[in-house]
Structure formats: C-alpha cells, structure tokens
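User: What would this chain look like folded?
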Amino acid sequence: MDYQALYNQKLTTAAQAVKVVKSGDWVDYGWCTNHPVALDKALSDRRSELYDVKLRGGVTMWMPEVCKGEDAGEHFTWNSWHCTGVDRKIIASGMGYFSPMRYSELPRFYRENVTVDVAMVQVTPMDSHGNFSFALGCSAIADMLAKAKIVILEVNRNMPWVYGLTGSEINIRDVDMVVEGDDPPVATLPAGGEPTEVDRAVANLVVPHIPNGACLQLGIGGMPNTIGSMIAQSDLKDLSVHTEMYVDGFAAIAKAGKITGKHKNLDKGRQVYAFAAGSQSMYDYMDRNPEVMAAPVDYTNDVRIISQIDNFISINNAIDMDLFGQVNAESAGIKHISGTGGQLDFVLGAYLSKGGKSFICMSSTVTGKDGSLKSRIVPTLTPGSIATDPRTCVQYIVTEYGMVNLKGLSVWERAEQLIGIAHPDFREQLIADAEKMGIWRRTNR
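Assistant: Here's the prediction, encoded as structure tokens.
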C-alpha cells in the first residue's frame, strides 16, 4: 500500500477539516499534551455558526481557543475528565463541567457509554508504515478514535515518538482527515521549586521503605517529585516503573542508573506509563527510547495488572483526610480541584502486590486564603468533599510528623494514630472532636 499517497489524499487544512462539526455534536480533544492546537483555533473561528457543541478533554495544559471570549459558553460546553488549573478556570467561567471517573475505566466509557461525533488529536508525523504515534498521551485515545464517527489528526513534528502496546498508534487507513499544524512546542509542566523542609521530611520517611527491585508509581506534585529526586540520589538499585503519569522524576532516576526493570514481573525492562507531561528534557529522553513504553490506561491502571508486579510502591498526594481514614484528593468542599484519576487504582493494586505498599503523602497543614493555618487532618471531611480513597483501602499515611499504617486498626486506633502525625497545634482539638464522635480512647501511651 502507498501510505504516502493515502496521506496526501486525506491531507487538508484545519479550517476545512472543522467544517464537519455540527451544532449539537460531541467533539473530543484527546488527552493532555495531545489536545489539538490548529484545529482548536479553526473550530473557535466557527463559533458564531455553532450552538451546543459539547467538547471533552483531560488534564488541559493551556486555555483552548474555544473557551476564550465572553460568548464562548453560548456556543461550546467544556467537559473535563481530569482537572488542572486551566480546567478549573473554564468551570469557574460557567461553561465547563467535570466528568467523574476512575481513570482505568475511561477506555470502556468510550467503548460502551459515550458518543463521539468528531475526534481531534495531536500526533507525531506518520512513519513509513503509515502509523502515527500518540506520543505522550496514549491514555484512552485509541478507544476514543475507534468510537468517533470522524477522526481528524493534527501532525506536530515536535511530538516525541514513544514505543508502546497496541493502542498507542493509529494507521492512516483509519483516519478521515490529516492536518499539518504549525508544529508548536509540546506543552511542558513548569519545573517545581526547591523542595520544602516538609517535602524533605516526608521523603525521608518514605524512601527507607522502598526496597531494591521495587516498581514505582509516582503521582504529580512536590512531594512525589522530592521522593523521586531522593531515590535518584540513593543507593537503591534495579528499580522499575509502572505508572499512570510519567514525570521528570522517573527520567532523573533512570539517568542516575537506578532503573533496570530486571526484576519486574510484567514488561521486564520497560518503563510503562499511560500519559506523560514534564520538561522538554524528559520528552527528549522518551523519544524512541526502547526502555519507555506507552500503554492504554486500562492496562496501566488495572488493579489486576498492578497486583501482579511484586514490591509495587505507590506514592500519591492528598488534599486532606479525616480521622476515619477517608482520603480526599480531588476537591475542597464542593470546589473541584482535580479528579479521582488513578489514585484509588494504585492504592488497591499496590496493597495486593506481593511486598507492595501504598503511601498517601501530605503536609500536616495548609495556609488558607485568609492567611490562617489549617490542619489537613480533620475530624470529618468538609461537606461536599470527595472521598477519593475509602477508609477501607488506605494503607500508609505520611506527614512531616510521622508515618502510620491504618491496615488492621479500629476506629479509635486510627484516630489516635492520625492525630499523632497531625500538626501539634491541632492535636488537642482533634482529640476533643474524636471524643465527641465516640472514636477516642485514652491509652497508656
């Protein structure tokens, strides 16, 4: 087959391609770095012609053109699978909404539950076999495109090519239109600042619990990044990676020679991930690197897959948690912050792994908008807050004041242990609250 001839037949302009979008359509933008750029602008240029166009995206890294302008919400509605600061701004403007999910289920949502009229996604240039790589955003893109009535690809020559499982590429035969964009730089995450003393204190508690040969999953944020940096500087060896999001910490650990994957039960020698976002240096490391492997999220986040990997270490963040052990990692009351994502999948999977451990890490306090210090360990979750991890699933909780393992503890033991790692300024009040709730018992400690 002459793939280049087929490519040329399907090549068009962004303005021409978006003419297929009709009022009332569902239009999907892919995931994170794979959101379209030229197609997004061309669709925005058509806004006066369209009404009730419903868009989906996830982990939005820049403000879509369709969401700009005072009248944007009269023509488009944005639906986010997982919120960033950009998504929160869109929601606050009144034209956006969150779509709850466990991230591992997203491919099945596309197969069974949602409608996709038009799909637009940024990809790499086509190879000699007619394939385009989903690059950094494998995620659920294959199932999204399979469900779409019309598939439009936007080629970006700056996208790194990442090798992967089935579901990490699409062939020109399965594409309706191709657009060559302006090759913008791939969106990057700003480098985090220097680790805080709290970050270091938490990392110092977690890293000694990671054995040689462990398989790592790191969430996004200052604490996981600090732990990754500390691992890179440690004496640990023969580590492996199986994660939802690939972040700079993994590249740093690999460059330090700590990752070999030689003891990994599945995908030996490969660093497996569902999507990636980080620095340009990380993207360069991933480009055509056989040690890195993209995979659909219903593989990376499947509890049954995770549990087969020995010594699985899952490290994630939280917003706050209550004395019963319920963890909220996605909202501040009714104000949505992020999403469930894969945290619950990895909390469950790590505990099921032989030798596995799940860590939820957080600072003991947060400073409110009024400048006051607030405890992240609270008597009960704030009304409207989401219990991302049920109390029955949580294992290790870590603050700068210590680490506790909630497995096997009664409600009074949980309260006692959690109060013991709360900020000292809040412990007496937490004890009083626990007494009122009937979950406090004086001990001889």
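The chain has a mean pLDDT of 95. If you want, I can go into more detail on any region.
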